[in-house]
Specification:
By secondary structure, the chain is mostly helical. Helix content is 77%, strand content 0%. Helix 1 packs across helix 4 and helix 2 packs antiparallel against helix 3.
Amino acid sequence: MNLFALLLGLGIERLLTHLFHLREFRWLDPAFDWALVRLHEKPRAVALASVVGLACLLTAPVALLSWLLDDALFFLPAFILAVVVLLFSLGPRDLKEEVDEYAVAVDAGNAQSARHVAKELLEAEAPEDAGTQARLVERAIFVQANNRIFAVVFWFLIFGPTGAWLFRVLDLMRRRAAYHYADETILIGAVRTAHGIFAWIPARLLAVGYALAGSFEESVADWRGYYANCAPRVFDVNNDILSSAGMGAAGRAEPSVAVTPSAGARAAMDLVLRTLWVIWCPVIAVLTLLNIVS
């Protein structure tokens, strides 16, 4: 059932662009702020446990509703719930729409608009230098594809709507902390670690997908090159792995490869879409069919 809910959810998402603002869940910000203000002076272990506990608390209503509807009316209510939760767990902003907006702004020479969109993708202030900004945006696209789409899909397939919503809550908390509590290093570390734990497996599966959907040899080489020089961290390297594998797969591992900023962003988004629809959707379908047959 989750496969059909996934395909339906991804398919009709493009028809509901006017509802995307509802996926930002601003009404959760007070809960995040209440917790984050009280966590910034706590030890890292306590802060980490509190972040996970808050995420589980906010996920509990979806888990309870999924359990109550599991066997009702031939699973139809549960199917509808799964589609709705998935639709509102993706995002919160539409990645392709933002990439198109960035490309249009760059082509039109609107530096202010381009910096504004770049800030949303980078989740930080964008540099003024157009070349540096464009390359960072390309890398951010490969990272945001996991935060906004693939990790949600992964946990949806593992734990249904509960898994999708749990990851979305963690990502919303991470975004809130990144934008408003950047000076609290222990707090930021706890939130990023909690998010990183759940992003760890889908990030590596997505990196493999980038390699299969693009230039395999360059992607693997850039991925290995990153591991050869990275710090011995566990959960903090997700973003670097995704950007390294993605840039290699897109043939952009070397900065000397000349493309226009808008073309680079569009190429990165095209690779993300190929990875989702050409690589992983068929794999998910085959695995689902094998599970049904067995």
